[in-house]
């Protein structure tokens, strides 16, 4: 079996990461991101679960995740995944939407899967230009035209862009987790904060947020860890600052949710793209 290949490049001018995964068998568990992800399936048939709705995705489909959309995916046919995506930070999206519409806001895209969409050609070309490090004006032009078409075809109206509010009792817990992700958090503590028994709280939180409290906390920690790694902090220091018990646990969780090790992710921001085959064995980096 061919080795997997994971390629990641960052375009600082656009504020967009371009991921390319080839030959990947990894299952991605329930998680969310604090940025937009627009991806294209080149090979592999997968079961995608997004916001508790199941969809089978196949080559030629586009996947779209808003910030906070809970999703997971796994292989269905035993074939490896070939996939490319653009990760767009909220400030970059807001800036482009402002250029396009004259109003700076964060759009909400309605569908997690676009079946055999005509938008794929523009997505793949923009991905190619970012991966190649091109600096020509037409790269920015293509980015604006691509997002403009996405807004016209797939976005809710601005008045409908807010994410669904958590149920009563969950807002305070979410705020607590976001403020205390560096600390040890117990189910006893957060269920008491919500004024519920542990079991009732666990069921209520998962129904409201689409993810368990522990998975929610891990997603927050990994989001903060990405920011620290981008600033040049070592994986060991990042693990300590984001509440992980040790560096191996941090590395395992980071790769499970992001698809790269922390050190691979650091290399995106330290002078060039990451082109790494799958790491075998127990090296923790």
Output the strand order for the largest sheet. 10-7-4-9-2-1-11
Element-by-element helix/strand order = EEEEEEEEEHEHHHHHHHHHE
Quickly name the level 1 CATH class of the largest domain. Mainly Beta
- Please tally the β strands and state the result: 11
Through-space gap between termini: 25 Å
User: What structural class do the secondary elements suggest?
Assistant: alpha+beta
CATH topology of the largest domain: Jelly Rolls
| Largest sheet, strands/sense/barrel | 7 strands, antiparallel
The overall pLDDT, averaged over residues, is 87
Low-confidence regions: 159-163, 275-285
Helix content: 40-55%
CA-atom Rg in angstroms: 19 Å
Query: So how many helices?
Result: 10
Protein name: Helix-turn-helix domain-containing protein
Organism: Paenibacillus mesotrionivorans
Gist?
With 285 residues, the protein is an alpha+beta fold. It has helices spanning 90-101, 120-131, 137-154, 170-179, 187-194, 198-209, 213-230, 235-241, 247-258, 262-268, and strands spanning 5-11, 16-24, 28-31, 36-43, 46-50, 53-57, 62-65, 71-75, 81-88, 113-114, 274-277.
């Amino acid at each position: 079996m061919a080795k997997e290949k994971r390629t990641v490049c960052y375009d600082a001018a656009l504020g967009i990461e371009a991921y390319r995964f080839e030959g990947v068998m990894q299952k991605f568990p329930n998680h969310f991101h604090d940025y937009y992800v627009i991806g294209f399936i080149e090979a592999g048939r997968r079961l995608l679960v997004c916001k508790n709705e199941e969809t089978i995705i196949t080559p030629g489909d586009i996947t779209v995740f808003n910030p906070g959309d809970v999703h997971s995916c796994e292989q269905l046919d035993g074939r490896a995944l070939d996939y490319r995506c653009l990760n767009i930070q909220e400030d970059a999206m807001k800036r482009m939407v402002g250029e396009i519409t004259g109003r700076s806001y964060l759009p909400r895209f309605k569908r997690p899967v676009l079946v055999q969409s005509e938008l794929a050609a523009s997505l793949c070309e923009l991905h190619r230009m970012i991966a190649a490090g091109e600096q020509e004006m037409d790269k920015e032009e293509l980015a604006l035209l691509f997002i403009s078409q996405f807004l016209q075809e797939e976005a809710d109206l601005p008045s409908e862009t807010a994410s669904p509010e958590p149920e009563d009792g969950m807002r305070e817990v979410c705020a607590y987790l976001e403020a205390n992700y560096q600390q040890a958090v117990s189910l006893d503590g957060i269920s008491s904060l919500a004024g519920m028994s542990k079991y009732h709280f666990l069921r209520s939180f998962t129904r409201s947020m689409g993810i368990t409290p522990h998975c929610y906390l891990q997603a927050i920690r990994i989001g903060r860890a990405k920011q620290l790694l981008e600033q040049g902090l070592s994986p060991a220091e990042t693990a300590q600052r984001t509440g992980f018990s040790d560096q191996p646990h941090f590395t395992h969780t980071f790769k499970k949710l992001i698809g790269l090790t922390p050190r691979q992710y650091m290399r995106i921001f330290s002078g060039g793209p990451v082109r790494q085959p799958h790491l075998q064995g127990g090296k923790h980096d």
